[in-house]
Amino acid sequence: MTSAIMSETTETRPAGSYPIASGIVVGVRVLLGLVLVWAGSSKLLETSSFATDVARYQIMPDGLAIVVASVLPMIEVGLGLCLLSGTCVLPAMLTITGLLLAFLVAQISVLWRGLTISCGCFGSDSPVGAMSVVRTGSLLFSAIFACSVLVFIQRKRRGNLTAKPIGASHE
Predict the structure, then answer these.
(1) Where exactly are the structural domains of the chain?
(2) Phi-psi map region of 167: left, alpha, beta (phi>0 left; psi -120 to 50 alpha)
């Protein structure tokens, strides 16, 4: 009787339906969306202070740091709103993954060079340190996981789950 129920349950589930993984992705999506809206909004309120923080990383010319400090908060808020609204989730999540990776590399660079600076996160003066690296790394891991699950589910729904070597024809 139990095997009949289990068999029935697995057979009635639509292809590409993964409720646990999908639920985790929704949780990650909402978490990252809220974090990005909060972080971007706090930077928009303190643009000149954020520009100083960006320049202190010493990885780009001061003029570019001002441009980055002016544009990045709007991008963060926009991406956060995409995640919260469920609009363009995969492209937003891929972009966020790239931004988090760049930020993690910048933070590690600061630690490697022995600089003592504010991380520029959330409008606070918290320094770049082990905790900021762990926080950024955790967000990056979450974004990578969500991207992986989203791509897997999309490919499964399309029936295109077979891996093909790079350069192979996609007939």
Answers:
(1) 19-157
(2) left
